[in-house]
Write a structure and sequence with these properties.
Layout: H1 11-19, E1 25-29, H2 35-39, E2 48-50, H3 55-63, E3 76-79, H4 90-103, E4 110-112, H5 114-122, E5 126-130, E6 139-142
Parallel strand pairs: 1-5, 2-5, 3-4
Antiparallel strand pairs: 1-6, 3-6
């Protein structure tokens, strides 16, 4: 255990988050996402598991140490609902609230069509799989930087 570090962030996750650089992408996914097969294409090459955690718990923990990229309009993108891309399921509004809270401002997510999301996820640095059972709990977070004065 480390003081001040969310206990969900075990050694493998912390090492991965630390190793990532500016502009690298991190997928946080629900239990239905093909995490293992997608993760095989990523830089890490294997899925990182947060079994027992839901997506909001994982996002909250990650955002406690992970800066979002301020050089892009939408450093977090969500998987669009098939047939209704403008729909925002409860899980997505919960994650939006966590982003806004972590950043201290409203910062709307972008969205990506489901099949395009899978392809974008394969190019990510890493995939974190959760035990979230609600549909459309899949997000890609782009890592930012920490300013020298921070």
């Amino acid at each position: 255990m480390l003081k001040g570090i969310d206990p969900l962030l075990h050694a493998d996750v912390l090492a991965t988050l630390c190793a990532m650089g500016h502009g690298d992408d991190l997928v946080i996914a629900d239990a239905n996402f093909p995490a293992d097969s997608v993760a095989r294409h990523t830089t890490v090459g294997k899925v990182l598991r947060l079994d027992g955690a839901d997506v909001p718990q994982a996002v909250r923990a990650v955002l406690s140490v992970f800066p979002l990229d301020t050089f892009v309009d939408a450093p977090v993108v969500r998987m669009e609902v098939v047939g209704n891309p403008m729909a925002l399921p409860a899980i997505q509004t919960e994650v939006q609230a966590l982003i806004d809270q972590a950043e201290g401002r409203s910062w709307p997510m972008g969205s990506v069509e489901r099949m395009a999301f899978y392809e974008q996820a394969k190019k990510a640095y890493a995939v974190i799989a959760t035990s979230e059972r609600r549909f459309y709990g899949c997000f890609i977070l782009k890592k930012g930087v920490i300013a020298p004065e921070a």
